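Q: Here's a chain of 351 amino acids. Please give me its 3D structure as tokens.
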Amino acid sequence: MLEDANLWWRGANIRSAALQKAGLLSNQECCCARCYGNDVCRAIKCPGCTDYQKRLKAAKILMLLSTTAVLMASFVGWGRVTLHGVNNKRQGEVHRNGKLKRWRCTLCDFNASDVAVAGYIKIEMSLTEDLADLSAIPKDKLGDWLSVVGSRVGFDHWLAPALCMEIYKRHTVDTNGEKTLTFTAALAGLRFGEWFLSRKLQSPPQQVIDEVADMLINTLDFLHGRLPGIRDLRVVYLRAHDMIRNVMENMDKGLLDRLRPFSGAAQNIKRRCAFCHKFLPEDIKINEENEDISATDEGSVPLYCVHCMTLCYCDMGCQMSDWKRHRHYCVPLEADFQSAKLSSILLGANS
């Protein structure tokens, strides 16, 4: 639960004092955005969404039995149940700061009182109290807590990026005054950036913009410096670049200048064959005088990896030759930075 929009950006600096002020650890009336409208930083599934998914699953079973599309449409289209008490009055309608004390889901039309979602609030409050002081949590336990938050309230909840920020800071090594990232810190930075982008939040204060930009640029620089390494980080790097570019465009387009060196490296990966490194067809016209052109001048069509849809090849021969290495580091197109596959690539035994 947040006091105001700025609290979303405090990340690892969320401490018990801030939570007390936000009304999280007391019985004071809350002033958070949830009381005034849709809260995009709370990922707990509301009863409406949960009920809809249950009915959708049952409808699919009915479809197999009846093969009637109309039946499925009518079944899924049932109105969501609104809790009512005696005399047809809504339960738990308590006024707070001149507003009804209610939940409004960002994914469906669910709009109910705190009483109707008391169980969800209880889970959230319990986690908030356990994570009131992130600095007191052992370094090696932060990842476990992130998994707990993800399983109980979802990775879109604001507790998840708070933990990611703490993991990033605690796993960044300070060597002779210079901060050096680890793969754990890089993964945490990517997850924080992905969370920011998915929430579509308003631009934070300038101080926070600078802090987030530094974290994302340092993460991308870390990945860029390890592209020639043992593991194949090309797919991770390209997706990280695209995600960070979108984040910076949303926060402050002036930050894109810091991204130019990495954008050049990303473009170089995309415009050449991922195995023989020769120019792909779309670059032949631009580089007509360049002799470093592969068999694409014979009119063959470049081939994308069907799993990641990120790396491109001159022909099937190059793709099959590169697959021996790429298959261990190929990230499915639909996978995000919370995926087990991406975590295994960055946190594997070869770290």
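Q: Can you summarize the key feature?
A: The radius of gyration is 24 Å.
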